């Protein structure tokens, strides 16, 4: 478990946790304003924890963040925690994709050691930036 004065980061394990994650995923997708059907997003969230389940996955949830979030350091703490978990699970690298408009996220990833790479899957979203971190 990772804690700060305003939130606790721990694995999502209960149905209540998965429902909270579902709400967060759906809010994120809505905020993006992009059709994510090419990633089969609806099936992904409907099957939670799905591919995020142990032993090959890890679904983390930040709780009790008291309305904080952006600018609170939560993103950095979540990124650091997921990297620790990936290493603990034996992964050799992490990959992600982001968008040019997500400048804060890109800065966070770069500060965490991620480097831009060639696309590793086809996406209809123009300008998608692919990144990787060697673990």
Automatic annotation (TrEMBL):
It comes from the Eukaryota. SUPFAM superfamilies: Acyl-CoA N-acyltransferases (Nat). Gene3D superfamilies: 3.40.630.30. Residues 70-135 form the N-acetyltransferase domain. InterPro entries: Acetyltransferase_Enz (IPR052777), Acyl_CoA_acyltransferase (IPR016181), GNAT_dom (IPR000182). GO terms for molecular function: acyltransferase activity, transferring groups other than amino-acyl groups. This is N-acetyltransferase domain-containing protein. It comes from Hortaea werneckii.
């Amino acid at each position: 478990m990772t804690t700060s004065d305003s939130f606790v980061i721990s694995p999502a394990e209960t149905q209540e946790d998965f429902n909270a994650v579902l709400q967060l995923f759906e809010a994120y997708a809505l905020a993006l304003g992009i059709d994510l059907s090419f990633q089969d997003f609806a099936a992904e969230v409907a099957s939670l924890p799905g591919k995020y389940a142990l032993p090959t996955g890890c679904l983390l949830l930040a709780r009790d963040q008291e309305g904080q979030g952006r600018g609170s350091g939560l993103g950095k703490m979540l990124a650091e925690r997921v990297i620790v978990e990936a290493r603990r699970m034996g992964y050799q690298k992490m990959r992600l994709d982001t968008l040019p408009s997500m400048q804060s996220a890109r800065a966070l990833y770069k500060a965490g050691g991620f480097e831009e790479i060639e696309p590793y899957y086809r996406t209809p979203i123009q300008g998608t930036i692919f990144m990787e971190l060697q673990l």
